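Checklist before submission:
- one chain only
- standard amino acids only
- sequence pasted in full

Submission:
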Amino acid sequence: MIKNKIKSLNLSATLRINEISKKLEKEGKEIIKFGFGESPFPVPNKIVEELKKNAHQKSYLPIQGLEDLRVSISKYESKKKNKNFSSEQVIVGPGSKELMFLLHISFYGDVILPTPSWVSYKPQSIIADNKLHWIETFAENNWYPSAESIEKLVLKNKEKNYLLILNSPNNPSGQVCKNLKQISEIVKKYKIIVLSDEIYSELTFDESYESISNFCPEKVIVSNGLSKWCGAGGWRLGYFVIPNELNNLKNSMKVLASETFSSVSAPIQFAALSAFNEDHKDYILKSKKILKAVGEYVFNNLKSNNVIMNKPMGGFYLMPEFLNKNFKTSTEMCADLLNKKGVAILPGSDFGFSGEKMISRLSYTDFDGKNFISNINLDTKLDEDLIKKFAPKITEGTKKIKDWVEKA
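Returned file contents:
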């Protein structure tokens, strides 16, 4: 009854850990939720008010997205990248995840994924029957592939079409790609298509964010949305900006959209106009200030001879490796931490690592973001006392992990 390739799939690891954590809480257990990566901050009030005003919108909107919204997105991305994108290059979807799925279905060729990569890239390529290639990465290079490693893979069969997926800042590592120019040379040389997943770009701690589209714009599809910087994950609104050179892919995705989700929720699209037309600079700067301080608190208090990781550079993730843990798999290790300490994290095997590597992903978002962001301003010094006050589960969870490590 069910196709074999579908039988091999499980629930998305990030959504699964969220449901497990909530179930354990309903059973009366205290759980520190470091597993699910969701923005802790409220959607900005101006955008919420626009949603209320547009609740009456009930008509189907254009498949590609509300024209005014696509204009706003094109202007937003043009300013961000110092380019000149048009509204025709934008397609709006019910979350960037759905648009990625349609891209996988449309694309004919092989998919290149760095290890580590977000949990849904691989399953989507399996569903789409695209051959998948993992490229090993290293902490010294911020967990991104070298240009040489990409070229080495492509040279095995230069006749194929290749789709390289880059996510910066990265989920799960929290790192930013610093060798985009070198990668872009290989992209241009072998005509590789790049999906640049920039969903965390507004949350880069360094102000000077760079996109690979700045180096090879004709080959790069930019992906973004409202879920991370805007705190609106449940609203399900994402978008692609697709270069004119890849119009055939855009048109194919549009056909698939017409046969699947039809169009994105009308009230959400009208409300999203405010996300791109209004100035949310203070909200974003305060969000980044908090995330950077909280991430560095966990990093500084967890790193040791037995726990190694890179300092966070954006988003809300750390990727600790536990050197003194002698489990058979990282899945077994994470289950032990959850059972003994009530702290939920995700195993590195969900992100492409070998199960034998004791690597995990930790999302430092289990705090009341509304309370935190409303009690600071841009010049507030976020010291340890403030983090303990406004993010008590972060400090508690960090201590529990340290205790668990020391008792190994």
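Reviewer check: The two ends are 46 Å apart (CA to CA).
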